[in-house]
Amino acid sequence: MGLKEEDLQGKLEMLIGEEMLIITKATQLNLLGQVFRPVFSGTVSDVQPGHITLTPVIIKMVNAPFYRFPFPLSIPLEQIVSYSTDVPSDMAFPLT
């Protein structure tokens, strides 16, 4: 995206309460033994210097594309590769 972290924080602060899809830098992550691509969607509940928090958050996994994570999830701003407010949380799309 080519945005400085401060610029990104300012843009994201205006989206509090909005649904957002976020993709992070990692090629894959591991949570409780499940390996998945770093694709998250949810409602922006907080934006602070250095991170954004989604609550509730859906982790888009191949075998569970609508897995609702039971806790708020904070994502470091420097790890965000891409984000969009145009993709609803309940939208199904291929992850492979």
If helices are DSSP runs of H or I spanning 4 or more residues, what is the number of helices? 1
Q: DSSP strand (E) fraction?
A: 35-45%
Number of strands: 8
Any low-confidence stretches, pLDDT <50, length ≥5?
Answer: none
Roughly how many Å apart are the termini?
A: 23 Å
Radius of gyration: 13 Å
Overall 3D geometry?
globular
Mean pLDDT: 85
Helix content: under 10%
Structural class: mainly beta
Q: What is the makeup of the main sheet?
A: 6 strands, antiparallel
- Order of SSEs: HEEEEEEEE
Oligomer: single chain
What are its keywords?
96 residues, mainly beta, two-stranded antiparallel sheet
Brief sketch in words of this structure:
With 96 residues, the chain is mainly beta. 9% of the residues lie in helices and 45% in strands.
Secondary-structure blueprint of this entry?
Blueprint: H1 5-13, E1 19-24, E2 29-31, E3 34-36, E4 39-48, E5 51-59, E6 67-69, E7 73-76, E8 80-84
Antiparallel strand pairs: 1-4, 1-8, 2-3, 4-5, 5-6, 5-7
